[in-house]
Amino acid sequence: MPDHFTSLETGKPFTQCCACEGLLSEKDMYIVNKSFAAGECVFELAMCFECREELNSKLSEESRVAMFDFMHDHADMEKREATLGSDSDTEDYIAKCLTCGVDAKGLNNYTLGGMFSGDHLIKGPFPMLICGSCEDKLNETISDETRDVWDKFIGEHFPGPPSEATLPTGSKPVFL
Description:
Elements: E1 30-37, E2 40-48, H1 49-58, H2 61-74, H3 77-84, H4 90-93, E3 110-117, E4 120-121, E5 128-131, H5 132-140, H6 144-157
Antiparallel strand pairs: 1-2, 1-3, 3-4, 3-5
């Protein structure tokens, strides 16, 4: 597993889904999200694909469409796939913001997302990096209903900080 996606808390790969607490080694696929502010990881999670789908189903239809449209309008996935294929170095996938192309070097605020099967990083749309500026734009597209779902999820599964914290922009981390 690439170091970018290990837990900063333990220094090791994630072992449990943050939602169902199931062992990730027993799941077909799972995602890892890590949000950085001022260059420091302020939020990290691993979630099995089943729980990710369940959480996504609770988001408003308006937000799901808006997020899809944002990614479709700002990320050229066909070009990315043609350029990177499925065997490029992990660093190549996260060298630039997926949606605006800004160089990741020097970014202070960003979110990383990766999809895994066991300890194997599945390359394709993931791994990805979205810069803080694009996170803000993406956050502007989601409904209050979706914001409430995400805030409730964070509050239930991450009591205390980070559930009470916000990024320097005033928003919660983006879920990739």
